[in-house]
Specification:
nine-stranded mixed beta sheet, alpha+beta
Length: about 325
């Protein structure tokens, strides 16, 4: 007979958990585990990371979920290893082997690597892999793939901001290329690995993938689920960064009490500010994040606002929040 399951008492939690997602866990499974550990009412992630990939996955709780799109759109940096000479159905080690080719080490000269590195740097078009979560007619592509059906996928524009290729040839039976890639959102590193392998003449599939940075958030700042689980509750909650940690690239504007109240009501405010497309707006008394907006023609226009209740809960949880200045970078 099973013992009754303990019901977790949820609570309002606001902030950003910088998670180092483990291998083998989907982004949603990692989110639900962290949400349970924090007993949070509301949570969301900032874009999926493959179960076969580890690394940076910022998780948003409460008011921070209003800004999760910003990280979704941010550039990402990955470390990956592409094993040469073997192509698979999925582009990674989970798939069935399609073809094996002998790898000729003498052909993998520094000049050849440099040429391929240059070939795949800059704006590119990628055809999304069949084994992906993209949807066609309401069904994920990987569902078609598992049924043995291949569907047309339009190529997508992506940007490889930088690419570094390093030959790994210590094991003559497993010659590989290490890739360090900084890229735009929507880039498939598995596809890039396959394309690099094809350009080198031997084919390839990924055997390792780790996201080491997203939007300036490096993996060294992240905590693992195992570490989080081992912490006492107070220490666990202290791992959360405030919602404004997602707004590092926003210009900061601080409003007095009267203007803050009007802004929170969705009313535009006039000032001497220069135009700015992304603004983080704070009140000065009490010092608190109010939301985000943009400035055009001297008008501060609200875009996403926190609720008064959310602001109150954040202040009660972070009584020493500092916010000062009129117009500066966060």
């Amino acid at each position: 007979m099973h013992s009754p399951r303990t019901r977790v008492q949820r609570r309002p939690v606001h902030g950003v958990l910088l998670l180092d997602k483990p291998l083998g866990l989907s982004s949603n499974d990692a989110l639900q585990k962290a949400k349970w550990l924090l007993r949070a009412e509301k949570a969301g992630h900032t874009g999926t990371l493959d179960p076969l990939a580890s690394g940076v996955l910022p998780l948003c709780f409460g008011a921070a979920t209003k800004f999760s799109q910003l990280q979704l759109d941010a550039p990402k940096t990955y470390e990956a290893v592409a094993l040469l000479g073997v192509t698979t159905t999925t582009g990674d080690a989970e798939g069935d082997v399609i073809e094996r080719r002998p790898v000729v080490l003498a052909e993998l000269t520094p000049e050849r690597l440099a040429a391929v590195q240059l070939q795949f740097t800059g704006p590119l078009q990628q055809v999304p892999p069949m084994y992906s979560a993209l949807k066609k007619d309401g069904k994920a592509l990987y569902e078609y793939a598992r049924a043995g059906i291949e569907v047309d996928r339009p190529a997508r524009d992506v940007v490889i901001h930088s690419l570094s290729l390093t030959l790994l040839a210590d094991n003559p039976d497993a010659i590989a290329v290490k890739m360090v890639v900084q890229c735009s959102k929507g880039t498939y590193i598995r596809t890039l690995g396959e394309d690099v392998g094809a350009a080198l003449g031997f084919g390839a599939h990924l055997t390792f993938l780790r996201r080491i940075d997203t939007g300036g958030i490096g993996v060294e700042r992240c905590v693992t689920l195992a570490q989080l689980e081992a912490m006492e509750e107070g220490v666990r909650l202290a791992q959360l960064e405030p919602p404004e940690s997602l707004l590092a690239q926003h210009v900061r504007v601080t409003l007095d009490s009267e203007n803050a109240a009007r802004f929170l009501s969705g009313v535009r405010r006039r000032g001497t500010w220069p135009d700015a497309g992304a603004v983080a707006v704070f009140g000065d008394n009490p010092p608190a994040l109010l939301g985000v907006g943009h400035i055009v023609g001297g008008e501060l226009v609200p875009d996403r606002l926190l609720s008064p209740l959310e602001i109150q809960q954040i202040l009660e949880g972070t009584p020493h929040l500092q916010a000062s200045g009129t117009l500066e970078k966060l």
